[in-house]
Amino acid sequence: MKPIPPHIRVVFPGRASFHIAQMSPVNEFLSPPGPDGLRHCQTHYQEQQPPPRQQQLPPVFGGPHYRHAPEAFAMQESMLLVKQPAGVETLNLQDSSFSTRASVMAEDANGIYCRSCSTEQVDAAIFKCFLRVHGCCARDGQTQLTVRHQKDGIRNIVLNNPKKRNALSLSMLTSLRSDILADVDSDDLRVIIISAEGPVFSSGHDLKELTSAQGKEYHSRVFEVCSEVMSLIQDIPVPVIAKVNGVATAAGCQLVASCDIAVATEKSTFATPGVNVGLFCSTPAVAIGRAVPRKVAMEMLFTGAPISAHDALLHGLVSKVVPEERLEEETMAIARRVCESSRPVVALGKATFYRQMAQGRDAAYTTASRVMVDNLALRDGQEGIRAFLEKRKPVWTNSTEKEHE
Amino acid sequence: MKPIPPHIRVVFPGRASFHIAQMSPVNEFLSPPGPDGLRHCQTHYQEQQPPPRQQQLPPVFGGPHYRHAPEAFAMQESMLLVKQPAGVETLNLQDSSFSTRASVMAEDANGIYCRSCSTEQVDAAIFKCFLRVHGCCARDGQTQLTVRHQKDGIRNIVLNNPKKRNALSLSMLTSLRSDILADVDSDDLRVIIISAEGPVFSSGHDLKELTSAQGKEYHSRVFEVCSEVMSLIQDIPVPVIAKVNGVATAAGCQLVASCDIAVATEKSTFATPGVNVGLFCSTPAVAIGRAVPRKVAMEMLFTGAPISAHDALLHGLVSKVVPEERLEEETMAIARRVCESSRPVVALGKATFYRQMAQGRDAAYTTASRVMVDNLALRDGQEGIRAFLEKRKPVWTNSTEKEHE
Amino acid sequence: MKPIPPHIRVVFPGRASFHIAQMSPVNEFLSPPGPDGLRHCQTHYQEQQPPPRQQQLPPVFGGPHYRHAPEAFAMQESMLLVKQPAGVETLNLQDSSFSTRASVMAEDANGIYCRSCSTEQVDAAIFKCFLRVHGCCARDGQTQLTVRHQKDGIRNIVLNNPKKRNALSLSMLTSLRSDILADVDSDDLRVIIISAEGPVFSSGHDLKELTSAQGKEYHSRVFEVCSEVMSLIQDIPVPVIAKVNGVATAAGCQLVASCDIAVATEKSTFATPGVNVGLFCSTPAVAIGRAVPRKVAMEMLFTGAPISAHDALLHGLVSKVVPEERLEEETMAIARRVCESSRPVVALGKATFYRQMAQGRDAAYTTASRVMVDNLALRDGQEGIRAFLEKRKPVWTNSTEKEHE
Q: One GO BP annotation here (chains A, B, C) (predicted)?
């Protein structure tokens, strides 16, 4: 392990995001800019109880959606996103004991991300990032675990490790998290589609990472990050659609269950076979048990036997089953429909759905009724109603501006 | 706005119910009869925190069913029901600053209700009510928003504004609430069927009521009353059946989801298209999210696309799908089956179902086990068992009398 | 009622279990062995509030699975299981005022149980038990209410009172409980199948036990024990499969809903007809309401009408519907599949599933993530992964030994 030089200064000439994804269970935070205009990134190790992060988080972090979902903070404990709309961003890494499992990712204004790398490569990564921001191509010879591209508000994230059956290794999870979170509060993003390269959507965790040799702390980290990614899908302000064409097992099945919507081809199958390798699918069961009836979940979990796409539809694990040749079209139809609505209205609706569903009926109505009134106060809320009454198409601002108080 | 004269005295010569449905967020209560035999209705305005009502409620209010469901009180905050089994009922309206949005409804012993009206018409309304109780016909030239008729224990409530697609305007909701609550604790009422006139079951809220011009307080009131009506359906002691023949959207779909049972024709469709007009169906989602799997709810909410009656059945939004020509017969078969059972047994069962479903398994069993023992102590509980053992039809008392302590 | 002699000493020459199932609401506990090597069984009557049992329970009671499910203790309040792996077991019954409704059951090392009996017969029962352990056949002329046999890890429990439509009388429930709990923590037991003799799976409670003549306390006891058995099915460490070929009504339907998995034949039907005999199926609704959509549960409960096996499958009440001739095969296929996996892995997974499902999403992920890490620390957890990576069949220890801390 090579120590990080105490002061790496990187100058980003454009709008850029800088992620620090810390694999080991540490706390880290960025200071507000000092008199020299620098932010300081402090990383603390070995602390078992993370201090309350809300107070220490720089104001630059997170969008309004996280504000009323305090668990979202905890979820993103190990990822800090520094946005500098324009001009110079200087990052100070003061800690010299960076773990080898730490990774640094950076992405430019277009949401194109730089490969994650171990800290030994941090200089190179930052350099590559620098190049990217300048429009240069930074290749590092490795296949990207996930591929992201975005157009007209629709972000496609493709699990891109078909040789390893798109196993949700820690790197894959981190890469997926990074692709989900990148500029997630930007108005340009309206919906996310998660699909996969190859015949296996995802086979779940990488069992090689779960041996005694890796150690308990590493195992903990894997399930923490996995739970974080699964929860993140439900907590971000845009809908997430799983586009499934093949086998989805264990945490791969959990990923499908966690998405807001799932479109699957007829040949797709779903299973939780962990019990067969001595690792009961207990974390996948959190998502699957909340998606399908108990008896269905139980049979899947106890036998490990796959269910067909048809049965998955019947029991609510997926939203739609289509012939393979129509998968793209049907998924895009849903995605485009989301794009036709107002961003803050969808964001408010999604957050409220999950919030009220965790409450009793009466509390749920109190929550949802208040949100309806807030929704109506939005400029887009009133524009929608006006357009309806005037029999014309609405023109959304997609902003959170209010029409009335 | 015409001030209400401080003392309107109305004499009802028969058994009568008198509703005061107050649209504005006020508190009001009826005093116990004074030395002059009068009850005083006091109305307070502008209070933000309603005082605890339980203590102030006159003993005449509510049946035993509301006693162990404290939320039912809050729900009916703005409606007080004064029953006078026989003789003279005198009502004193002491407040002179009645809002124009207030309405007064009265109904006679046969459950025939008097039209709601603005307070400017209060004298006339009370007069009409008076006439009704005397068997006269009080017509006011307006179409009734809901029509109610009751026979052999089965109450039919028909949404009766087909020109406006049976929009759940505040008046419609109030009228519906009134029809649901009227004599709801009477032994004569065994089951309620909610249906609609015209090709649209209900299109949800009236968007004209949700503009900035109406103002935030009015919006709040709309969703409060709507949530109240939806909850009421589940909290009253008799089953409520939705009889759907057509389109049910937004709060109209919520109404179907809120009913205990729903019978729909094959052509019926269900949607939550609020997102298309910039108003995400967050309150409908409270009922729909508790009726269908999450993935189904999410796709409906994010896309606004309708689902067929078949899919609604598949996912639990309706109980039965029938050809149009069999809708009446199938709905009545269920209603009549309810009428064949003992009223207090059904009431106990319904209340317990919703109560235990909100609890964890062990607490639910404690609740339900106690109720079973209470149920067995009822005269009708023992009669049912005796009849079964003696191989004869049971003869219900339909009373809450006990066979043993 | 004949008083129990203060000191009955019974010597079991083999490994044996001794159950004391106490029907009346009493507290009882066994002392740790005294200097004379005897355990004392103390029975307290008339106490309304049971004292905290955890502290008083002898270490011999219960397996590790009960340790982290405190409700399981309360559940088994009236049953104490004394295991003596080998040698002499002497039981001291010091209380002379045994209730007539108490029963004593004993079973030998092969899990063959001795008939339950009233306390008047206690001497005889213990004597028979003694005979059984010595390999003699103890017949008492009565048909056994449940029949249990176990082979290759698969325990079959057959409801065996077809003449009474396998009514879940208190004796039947007690017998079923005894069959479920017998040696439930033994590694020899991997899965339980509950089936029934005759065309009726079970018709629910025995209505003759629910008359006023029996009294409120007895009714309470019936529903307590019933709730206990239903909960027990979900709380024990092995999966329980209902194998249904016929009618399952009321508590019989509840039994199917409570099992982890249910395989039913096409001709099977399911109903909650209590409302027809004046006893609303409120306790069955606890299990059924958690298995099927609300609208389905409500229609079943309010009308009492049966649903087909097909509809039961559609709505999640059963896991699989098969032709009658394939019932045995399909059920055994699932059971054998369970036997192929590691016992502690299945036990951990089952307990975690129910635990996390009662929590909110974030707490559920915290629970399940910890369990995954614990699962990986098991010798069998690591063996499974090794076998997978080495492409061979795993060889389970089926013990809770750890590979790493």
A: fatty acid metabolic process
